[in-house]
Design brief:
By secondary structure, the protein is of the alpha/beta class. The protein contains 14 helices and 19 strands.
């Protein structure tokens, strides 16, 4: 009788090492051993040849419920499973249920659990009028981090948190060891830029970038990190489109502060002059997609180790909310769960960047960031056997053709992917086999381990 339930052999990609003739051995849903050479016997054994075996990705930024009666966890976690993403961290800005209390956290867990095909953790936030009064109860309810915004997208669903309240919230979070993540756009500066764009009568694809020039993002990032420095709270910029932003984050870390920074996959793939010009509203994202020169700067920050996390900021708006010829009238955000991992692998290989960064930026670092690394984020003994397997099968991506997305559009449609996800395992169980995804309800709510 075999000692192992599952053994996968191929090229094992770890955060600091690639094992070309490697294997991962699994028992009772946990990784038991990662080795090199002849794979041991198992109840289920797969020799995968040239396939890349990576830790299942953790998407640090998913919006499953931004549009009511649209995507929901039934679809977001389906896209995740098909993309080698085994845990999503869902944002709190749900239409009709801002997650800003323990009750709201419990309601969301109860809602998501029967639908989830992969595991999920949750962000919490605050209602400005309640100040920081409900932060402690959300920590007790199991949120993995908090999210705020320096820009007011919507006064109820996605409110601006002014400077004094941001400081109060950071101070309340600091003793827990959790991270305060912040949407980094200066409200006053953005509104002034929007007014200028409208006064000039610009409505085409250029309008969005002009309405959110680089300084609007960088000013907010400085506020976020200074607030963290003043309160002792881990401070996190949840999406940075500019190389200068990564320089700023690195400078705070060099000074000894806990200053982390996230790069969404769209900032590493799409550019303003080609993709936004071509796609219009389907490439409208906050902060905006920047010129190609900025995209390449971000890849150099990946190479240099200045990026903490890579995520999707996934949201599947219905197509009618992304196709208005007036650029500024469109909803902001794009889907990306199904292709984040293959897109990163493609970009890294094209630039001779080690694939170890894929394991680090989309698994190990997110697990540590959200304090779930007791179970997640690594192919190491005792951790959940969350595994993504990519095969060297070239495929031109088409969101509608794949069948794993609630919407049939994607800004990544037409991109040739040299490596594609063919197998996904969650806690040692197959949840994607290259075509079919696992059943709803197998995913579980993941709580962080915290210091208070």
């Amino acid at each position: 009788m075999s000692d192992f339930d599952l053994v996968l052999s191929g090229t094992v990609v770890l955060p600091d090492l690639i094992i070309e003739n490697g294997y991962v051995a699994v028992r009772a849903g946990k990784v038991v051993h990662v080795g090199e050479g002849t794979a041991p016997h198992a109840h289920e054994r797969h020799e995968l040849g040239e396939a890349l075996i990576l830790p299942g990705a953790i998407d640090a930024q998913t919006h499953s419920l931004s549009q009511k009666d649209q995507e929901d966890f039934i679809w977001s976690t389906r896209s995740a499973a098909a993309g080698g993403v085994t845990t999503i961290v869902d944002m709190p800005y749900d239409e009709g249920n801002l997650v800003a209390s323990a009750d709201a956290v419990r309601r969301k867990v109860a809602h998501a659990q029967p639908q989830a095909r992969v595991d999920f953790a949750l962000y919490g936030t605050v209602v400005p009028e309640e100040r920081a009064s409900r932060i402690a109860e959300q920590v007790e309810a199991g949120v993995a981090a908090f999210k705020f915004s320096t820009f007011g997208t919507d006064p109820v669903r996605f409110p601006r948190i002014p400077a004094d309240l941001l400081e109060e919230c950071f101070a309340a979070i600091a003793p827990t060891g959790l991270t305060a993540g912040v949407h980094n756009e200066d409200d006053e500066a953005v509104r002034a830029a929007i007014a200028k764009v409208k006064a000039m009568g610009i409505t085409d694809y250029r309008a969005h970038g002009l309405s959110r020039p680089p300084l609007t993002e960088l000013l907010a990032s400085l506020q976020i990190y200074e607030t963290g420095a003043a309160t002792g709270c881990p401070a996190h910029v949840v999406h940075c489109s500019l190389g200068r932003g990564y320089d700023i984050a690195a400078s705070y870390r060099d000074q000894g502060f806990d200053a982390t920074i996230e790069c969404c996959i769209h900032y590493l793939v799409l550019d303003e002059e080609h993709d936004v010009a071509r796609l219009g509203g389907k490439a409208k994202i906050n902060p905006p997609i920047r010129p190609r020169a900025e995209v390449e700067r971000l890849w150099e920050h990946v190479r240099a180790g200045n990026v903490t996390l890579v995520s999707t900021d996934h949201v599947s708006w219905s197509e009618n909310r992304k196709t208005n010829p007036d650029m500024l009238a469109n909803a902001s955000g794009v889907p990306g769960l199904e292709v984040m991992l293959p897109l990163f692998v493609k970009g890294a290989l094209e630039r001779d960047i080690p694939l170890t960064w894929a394991a680090r930026l989309m698994a190990e670092n997110p697990a540590k960031h959200f304090r779930i690394d007791h179970a997640k984020g690594a192919l190491s003994a005792g951790k959940d056997a969350d595994i993504a397997v990519l095969f060297p099968r070239a495929k031109r991506y088409d969101a509608a053709e794949s069948g794993h997305n609630v919407v049939g559009w994607s800004p990544y449609n037409g991109i040739e992917l040299p490596w594609t996800v063919g197998l996904t395992y969650l806690r040692g169980q197959e949840v994607f086999d290259g075509s079919a995804v696992g059943a709803p309800g197998f995913g579980q709510f993941v709580r962080p381990e915290i210091s208070a």
